[in-house]
Amino acid sequence: MIHVDNLSKNIQNNSILKDITLDIHKGCLTSMIGPNGAGKSTLLSAICRLIDIDHGEVEVDGQLMSDYKNNDLSKKISILKQSNHTEMNITVEQLVRFGRFPYSKGRLTKEDYEAVNQALDILQLHDIKERNIKTLSGGQRQRAYIAMTIAQDTEYILLDEPLNNLDMKHAVQIMQTLQMLAHNMDKAIVIVLHDINFASCYSDQIIALKDGQLVKSDVKDNVIKSDVLSDLYEMNIQIEEIKDQKICLYFK
Questions:
Q1: Is 190:199 a contact under the CB 8 Å cutoff?
Q2: Burial of 224 (0-12, 13-18, 19+ CB in 10 A)
Q3: What average pLDDT does range 145-166 have in this prediction?
Q4: What is the rounded distance in angstroms from the CA atom of residue 239 to the CA atom of residue 16?
Q5: Per-residue confidence band for 252, with pLDDT thresholds at 50, 70 and 90
Q6: Using the 8-state DSSP alphabet, how is residue 132 labeled?
Q7: Which intervals hold domain ABC transporter (predicted)?
Q8: What is the DSSP annotation of 164-228?
Q9: Adjacent-strand bridge partners of 189
Q10: For the chain, which domains are there?
Q11: Where are the alpha helices (DSSP H) in the chain?
Q12: No. of H helices and E strands in the chain?
């Protein structure tokens, strides 16, 4: 479990995150939702020590985040941020191999190749694994980076808007894949989403942020409510149930 305790972050005298306390559990797909500027991406970065925090603590499996060595932490937590993308002239398979760097430092073993092949298989990328990433569509490139993150084989996987550039078919496939990793492989998956219906249909837990503050962190049925979401997004949001799924309606 990741435990975040009273975490705060200031940037240029502006309070970006304010006293955030929450838990992230293995075996669960957790979505992070909220309006633009809520602090979602900043919280992801703080959780995995990409940025310093001004107050509070983060514990990973009972150990303070600050006590982890960098290489040990990279075997525990992986993160894919929107800014992770590279302009290197490499193939899809070479990109996915980067996920094994914490283990092999570039000298891949049989186990590393197996992890790479599994990630390519999960994201259905074998047919384009020899292509240069610069020749891919935005959606194909996004899937390749997600495969790299999966190849890292960490217990905690953090993804910042992983559905960017994906069409509906591949967005659904990615969410199903992440749900499978959480439920079948006991991983903790945390994703920043703007589509609250994907959050509603696939999440186990939802973290709702607004103006750097935690509005709610709970099982999805306690978050996907008209009053909670209407307050969160400052607009009228109605909930309809279709085939046992709560669907959010917010079009006028």
A1: no
A2: buried
A3: 94
A4: 30
A5: low
A6: B
A7: 2-236
A8: TT--HHHHHHHHHHHHHHHHHH--EEEEE-S-HHHHHHH-SEEEEEETTEEEEEEEGGGTS-HHH
A9: 29, 157
A10: 2-249 (3.40.50.300)
A11: 40-47, 70-74, 92-97, 101-104, 110-122, 138-151, 168-185, 196-202, 226-233
A12: 9, 12
- The reported pLDDT for the residue numbered 165 is 82
Q: Given this model, what pLDDT does residue 138 score?
A: 86
Q: Smallest Cα–Cα separation from 207: which of 38, 73, 58, 6?
A: 38
Alpha carbons 195 and 190: distance in angstroms, whole number: 14
The amino acid at residue 197 is: N
Average pLDDT of the chain to the nearest whole number: 95
Give the chain's end-to-end CA distance (angstroms, integer).
40
pTM of the full structure: 0.94
Amino acid at 50: L
**127, amino acid identity:** D
Q: Are 117 and 111 in contact (CB under 8 A)?
A: no
Q: Which of 64, 48, 149, 154 is nearest to 98 (CA)?
A: 149
